[in-house]
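Researcher: Let's try something more involved. This one mixes different molecule types, so please make sure each is placed in the same coordinate frame as the others.
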Amino acid sequence: MAEATGAPAAAAPKPAGAPAPKAAPTPRPPVEGPPKTPTAGWEPEIVAFCCTFCAYTAADLAGSQRTTYPTNVKIVKLLCTGKLDPLYMLKAFESGADGVYVAGCLEGSCHFETGNLRAKAQVERVKKMLEEMGIDPARAEMFNLSSAMGTRFAEIAREFTDRIRKLGPSPVPKRGVGL
Amino acid sequence: MIIGERKKLEDIYARVKDLKKVLVAGCNGCVAICYAGGEKEVGLLATELRIMAKKDGKPLEVSELTHVRQCEHEFAEAARAAVENADAVICLGCGEGVQIMAEHFPAKVFLPGINTTFIGSPDKQGVWSEKCAACGNCILDRTGGVCPIARCSKSLLNGPCGGSHDGKCEVRDDLPCAWQLIYDRLKALNRLEELDQIWEPKDWRTSRDGGARRIVREDMVVKENPT
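Model: All components are placed in one shared frame. Result:
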């Protein structure tokens, strides 16, 4: 019996009843497309939901240390990031925020044990919602830090502001002036 | 309770994007417990729709309302002003809620925002499973409180079958074999003799036989002309 020479296995007839090959997954449509050209003088509007026991205190420390961070970041204090509702983040986006982040305690150090882990799950949920709405999920993020990390707070604010600056203005038009 | 899952945003948005005014009507009953259609989910869906419309430059106004229970005409009436002000209503109630609203406001368009999935219960936070098939002829007294109609993949009355392995059903690894549960429960109750009984064939006429089912309680019916 002659050996098959170079005939690909795929060319052989399929046995009856063989399962049909799985269709290749349809590629996801581009979420936002290329960044919009910002209008002159555009500055990202960023909302940060900060836990009072860590990030908010760290922001205070950053101020005491005279560490500067971008004024684009507007802080909303939460008594624990476990209180974060996805609606808070969506409302910020609806009002025209270009990026929203949540800053909670280091994992394992939540004042209420698991509030920051709950927030992490909610931020993941919001990222999925943003994707469904055709908004880049990178516009939402979760960060963890302790109250002693004032410098890190400023770093996070700078990192996130830079990220949003690269992404450009939110595809959702702003409501009124400012937020 | 009735368990449902919200439909995909893109499917809901496709039905309303060219309208001017839409009402998202939720229900604070069963579907609020399974995070599909309560007040919070109404807020989330309405906000998502507003964001989508703003993004696409559509003049869509989205209002919100949540019923105490969407499945009764008495509560539907409270939504009259909001419903009449909208071009269409997205109902985040179960399939029954949507139909009650459609019956109550015959001139309006109602769109389901939820896929009504099953009668079940929360197993733990964020996990729900089917518990009852509403067959109309309950046999839970014989099966140790575990329903083989809803929870056995084949609805067997004499399980387990050969597809039961290590207490799991062959259909899915996370699906317990209902007949294993029944056996374990009856054994724990020292009532295994229940399984030796010969059962009469189950009367399926109370299930999906003869069209939509109806119950009439003559003692509860309010007569229009009692005299």
